[in-house]
Write a structure and sequence with these properties.
By secondary structure, the protein is α+β, with helices and mostly antiparallel strands. The chain is built from 21 helices and 18 strands.
């Protein structure tokens, strides 16, 4: 992932302004440590911090068309760039970068080319011929992007909030699947509007091989790389399928010819955690070179402030899950790896979270999956993007491939419904699609392993330790005044209050706090789905273990004492491991 920053239509073209833009761009250098670039045309500035994945030798940015009248700064990967180049035969490309097609597509099609891009992206395009510009973000918001407005009439765009929050009067998250155009008076236009977006119930019959084929295609296209890469492997269904498909199809790719045919896999967890055990087993089954990273509760607590600064949220479940991913990303990058494939998005598409067990009917089930996908940019996409890019590591998410989403979301949701009496657990349609007796993708017990949210799977005592630490730093009196101190998204727990204090120190603007979602949730549900079970209203916690009556190691949040971590019966054998150093086993 790269970092982009643009200031458009400002009132200052002085050297001091250029220096300020460079200073702000440097705040994004962790996203792109390989090279920096800046372009100025009058009162417009485009800056870029590059993480070189495709064409490391010549793909520096900003990028241009032939006569350099069109300028682009972009963060992302365009997987169909070779196909798009074939349709641009009259154009001359300056680089081999996959993003080089954007300026030329604009020349041919104007602003209507965005849906032609198959990939993940955020970009700013400046047309110096008439001083117009456009900004666009990918379909579901895999790449992060913010937009802001200055008092001088300027428009600001940045990959992260820290690039603009001090210089804008107002700023917000740029909506996924939209573009912003100066030609249309500076308004947003939705370019991504698939059939499932209106939330009407689809009726396509379930065909296992159609799901299998669509997902294999999504993984294979993401093997496009000129640098070393690997897969995140927690041992859960989603990451294991990504690893299995990658291992099957790696041989014969350009990446294999350059870096070798053996896949590297990575897993993180507390000593003895469910993910470490399952990840190792899957790695041995697939024959990957497996790297196992251990962290302690104290290691995670020590990193919380850095995590909140980089991930730019105070959402509890996002911080819980981002911290292990943040620690793991640093270790992965130290091994020379610059890109990883990950399993985000499956639970939203297939209703994999444990609370989906209580969906009352297929309409409610489908509408909840639609709401979850639309909100991904605020949660898992934000985590996967920013926790990895904090150390110049790129995460690719094949489950969020546009074509795969369309295929999976066109299914009659009756086939996705969880029916234990029929042997159908969560994500049954995905599991069944890859249940191949002749050439198994995974061991049966891994293929049918119960869903573990990432913040749970790294070790149940991780969340208990966070709650205990928060209780040491937030007292009852502070909580009694919470609604006055934080009237918007008032924290309801000491853990939430603790994260909010840290966030407000880094990002004190009202616009910043408005970028973070709020509302009631249980096991990562939306507020609407909380209505499915009356008992959940007394157990508001985003952990999967809050799904009482569903998770095998469920806990009743109303009975968990905050001052001390109280391990559940099911995790008595997992040591707390406080104060030990991080160790790497390769």
């Amino acid at each position: 992932m790269c970092g982009i920053l643009a200031v458009l239509g400002c009132s200052d073209d002085s050297q001091a302004k250029r220096v300020r833009v460079l200073e702000l761009s440097r705040r994004l250098r962790h996203r792109g440590p390989d090279w920096s670039g800046i372009y100025q045309n009058g009162f417009n500035y485009l800056a870029h911090q590059r993480l070189a994945i495709i064409d490391p030798d010549s793909g520096d940015q900003p990028l241009f068309n032939e006569d350099k009248s069109i300028v682009v700064t972009v963060n992302g990967e365009i997987y169909n760039h070779e196909e798009l180049r074939k349709g641009l035969k009259n154009h001359k490309f300056h680089t081999g970068s996959d993003c080089d097609v954007i300026a030329h597509l604009y020349e041919e099609h104007g602003e209507n080319f965005v849906d032609m891009l198959d990939g993940i992206f955020s970009f700013v395009l400046l047309d110096t011929r008439d001083n117009s510009f456009m900004v666009a973000r990918d379909a579901v918001g895999v790449t992060s992007l913010y937009i802001g407005w200055g008092l001088d009439g300027s428009l600001w765009v940045s990959s992260e909030m820290k690039g603009l929050h001090e210089d804008c009067e107002h700023f917000e998250a740029f909506p996924p699947g939209h573009l912003y155009s100066s030609k249309s008076g500076g308004g947003f236009k939705q370019w991504y509007n698939p059939p499932w977006f209106n939330e009407s119930v689809p009726s396509t019959p379930y065909e296992p091989l159609a799901i299998r084929s669509a997902f294999e295609d999504a993984v294979i296209k993401r093997l496009m790389t000129d640098v070393p890469f690997g897969v995140l492997l927690s041992g859960g269904l989603d990451s294991s399928l990504v690893a299995s498909i990658t291992a099957r199809h790696l041989a014969g790719t350009k990446a294999a010819k350059r870096w070798g045919p053996q896949l590297h896999s990575f897993c993180v967890g507390l000593e003895g955690s469910p993910d470490l055990k399952a990840g190792k087993e899957v790695a041995e089954y697939l024959g990957t070179v497996h790297h196992e990273f251990h962290f302690t509760v104290q290691d995670g607590i020590d990193a919380i402030e850095d995590v909140i600064y980089h991930v730019e949220t105070y959402d509890v479940t996002t911080i819980r899950a981002s911290t292990p991913m943040f620690l793991m990303s640093r270790k992965i990058k130290s091994l020379g790896v610059k890109m990883v494939l990950s399993g985000e998005g499956s639970d939203e598409i297939f209703g994999g979270y444990l609370y989906f067990h209580k969906a009352p009917n297929k309409q409610e089930f489908h509408q909840e999956t639609c709401r979850k996908i639309k909100a991904l940019h605020k949660y898992d996409c934000l985590r996967a993007n920013k926790a990895t890019s904090a150390f110049g590591l790129e995460a690719r998410v094949p489950f969020l491939d546009k074509e795969f989403i369309n295929t999976a979301m066109s299914l009659d949701p009756e086939s996705k419904m969880i029916k234990p009496e029929e042997g159908r657990i969560e994500k049954w349609v995905l599991r069944r699609a890859f249940d191949d007796e002749e050439r198994p993708y995974l061991p049966k017990h891994i293929l049918y392993r119960q869903k573990e949210q990432f913040s749970d799977g790294v070790g149940y005592s991780w969340i208990d330790g966070l709650k205990a630490h928060a209780a040491e730093n937030v007292n009852d009196k502070m909580m009694s005044n919470a609604a006055f101190i934080f009237p918007h998204n008032t924290p309801l727990t000491k853990e939430a209050y603790y994260y909010r204090m840290i966030f407000e120190r880094f990002f004190p603007q009202n616009s910043a706090r408005l970028t973070v979602p709020g509302g009631a949730t249980v096991a990562c549900s939306t507020a609407k789905a909380v209505e499915w079970d009356a008992s959940w209203s007394n157990n508001m916690d985003p952990s999967g273990r809050a799904a009482i009556g569903v998770h095998l190691s469920a806990y009743d949040g109303s009975k968990v004492a905050l001052p001390l971590p109280t391990p559940h019966k099911a995790i008595d054998d997992i040591p707390m491991m406080m104060g030990q150093e991080v160790v790497i086993q390769t």
